[in-house]
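Section handout 9: paired folding examples.
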Amino acid sequence: MVKVLFIFVPVFIACVFILVVAQLISPKFRGKMMSRQIKAAKYMMDESKDDIRNISTNMADATKDGIEITTRAIKDGLTKDERVYCKHCGSLIDKDSKFCKNCGGEQ
């Protein structure tokens, strides 16, 4: 095992050194290496478009629900109703309730 490492490591270092020198000397080689990186980045961006779209849609839905709960609470607060909304699930509960009837959360 140790003998393999003494052979493999210097060969690996030599290959890396050769690649670095080739990139420094040859603009054509450097361009080929960069074009591969650009193609890989474009591929990753194309593959992740649907994931990003799904994440933004889910966040918009969650934000919409939060805004609806908040506006309902503001509206009901302006009408001086004796009911409040649960801070855990957003359900309408009585003002003097210690627990939510929907989720059981303590108020």
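Moving on to protein 2 of 2.
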Amino acid sequence: MKYLFLILSAVLTFQLSVAPAVAARIKDLAKINSVRNNQLIGYGLLTGLNGTGDDMKKSRFTLQSVYNMMVRNGITIDARDIDDIKLKNVAAVMVTATLPPFARPGSTIDVNVSSIGDAKNLAGGTLIMTPLQGADGQVYAVAQGPITLGAFSFGGKAAKAQKNHPTVGRIAGGAIIENTVPVDLGADGTLTYQLDEADFTTAANMAEAINARFGEKTARPFDSGSVTVAIPETEKNDLVGFVAEVEKLDVEADTSAKVVVNERTGTIVMGKDVRLSTVAVSHGNLSLIVRESADVVQPNPLAEGETVVVPQTEMAISEDEGQLVLLDMEKGVSIGEIANALNAIGATPRDLIAIFQAIKASGSMHGELVVL
């Protein structure tokens, strides 16, 4: 792990020293405020399972759903006999999907299907017609079709083989759109672009790039997260072409200096703008090893006495030599030089997490420390 981190540090140092800043397209930095996805959800039944469905005694809602489905389809069943329904090939599922912007009735979208009961496996199941509703309670799509799983689960009472999750699946193109969400694109003569990462510098650079292409006062940053664009009179008859031209413009994106660490995985990601003030770092490891053993003591032959067990404890303490390294950052250095300086004291990625937290606490790190 240490050598891998050294190699990564060298590569980052080389890239940051020779590669100029790369501009990003506006379409990769921001989205039009009214153009967005909408989430859909529905409750349905999955049939055709090979005895791996819900237990009707435990999942009572599945039993009630089966009864309601039969009644809707003209099958007469006395409500008092509902407990007599014994099924093992039906599972209650939640169906979720994402409705894209400008979707039209008749087009299809993919849906995800996940069990909410105690079904063991959804392989081979077919989803029965399920309405998908939006947050407003309106039905926007209807899902139905055979489910596809990227998993399997087989076994008996003594052994079982399973790969991935057999209670979650997907139906490609499984929902047909029945309703749309209206989008008033440029209805008031303006477009508002919402930045994915709010930043005043990026918003100003974006407005400057648009004004350079379409004329002064075409765009202005409203705040750090949005830019308002006035549609030119010459472009109002070709709004799609105007949006396409704006999206292709290159913008110098700026970000705040951040160090993101994940202690669970030992991952460290440092932004190129992270800077440290002059700071001294010492690193050392203390190891305490305790071993327990037992010695058997027996009396001499023909002597009176009993055999006893005497516990023995061995303890060893070792401490690596602490090294004090001065990180002189007055002139400003790159991320690679910071990594090389910290690796000089023999720190592993997990040690670096603790070191960065201590440096941030001392006030010597100029940037945000994010701990996941």
